Amino acid sequence: MSIILGIDPGSRVTGYGVIRQQGRQLLYLGSGCIRTKADDLPTRLQRIYAGVMEIITQYQPNTFAIEQVFMAKNPDSALKLGQARGVAILAAVNQSLPVFEYAARQVKQTVVGTGAAEKTQVQHMVRSILKLSANPQSDAADALAIAITHCHFNQNLLKVGDPKLVLTRGRLR
């Protein structure tokens, strides 16, 4: 049994999703968003860190999965996203959690079947996979999709059964 915390980082809204993997079965534990209303970036980063730490304390995950940085059109936005990712990762490593990273296209491909999926498609598939009564909020659905992607790759490693294969940062080594 494994508890996975998925994070969809953002400097204003950071989505989180927590699932439990028992063999091939995925169970929804919780999801939501860390919303930062402060105008200054340092305060927003502190709130993201504190929020991720609170989630880790509440759910006690064994694994942390996060979306990789993508190149945005606006370099300033990409830098802020990178900083938000950094404080979330710092919270995880401070709790000795292994960190895995997945590209947005890889997450969409795994959950929806196409790397160019729309957010509404991700929401629908997350709802279906986890047997939820309603679509999760968009950022939370993305975080749950990241956690589902980690489970998919983790399950595939178990099928392969080669002890020499190690999943590091979302890639086989």
What would you note in describing this structure?
It is a single chain. This protein has 173 residues and is α/β, with parallel strands linked by helices. The protein is built from five helices and seven strands; from the N terminus they run E-E-E-H-E-H-E-H-H-H-E-E. The strands form two sheets. It has a five-stranded mixed beta sheet. It has a two-stranded antiparallel ribbon with strand order 6-7. A hairpin with a 2-residue loop joins strand 6 (167-168) and strand 7. Helix 4 packs across helix 5. The radius of gyration is 15 Å and the shape is globular. The protein starts with a strand and ends with a strand. The relative contact order is 0.20. The model is unreliable at 158-173 (pLDDT under 50). It catalyses: Endonucleolytic cleavage at a junction such as a reciprocal single-stranded crossover between two homologous DNA duplexes (Holliday junction). Mg(2+) 2 binds at residue 67. It is found in: Cytoplasm. InterPro entries: RNaseH-like_sf, RNaseH_sf, X-over_junc_endoDNase_Mg_BS, X-over_junc_endoDNase_RuvC.
Instruction: Write down how many β-strands occur, each being a DSSP E stretch of 2 or more residues.
Output: 7
Mean pLDDT: 89
Largest sheet: 5 strands, mixed
Shape verdict: globular
Helix content: 40-55%
Largest beta sheet: what is the strand line-up?
3-2-1-4-5
Counted by DSSP, the helix tally is 5
- How far apart lie the N and C ends? 23 Å
**Residue ranges: pLDDT <50 for 5 or more in a row?**
158-173
What is the subunit arrangement here? single chain
* Series of secondary-structure elements, N-terminal to C-terminal: EEEHEHEHHHEE
* Approximate strand percentage: 15-25%
Radius of gyration: 15 Å
Helix vs. strand class: alpha/beta
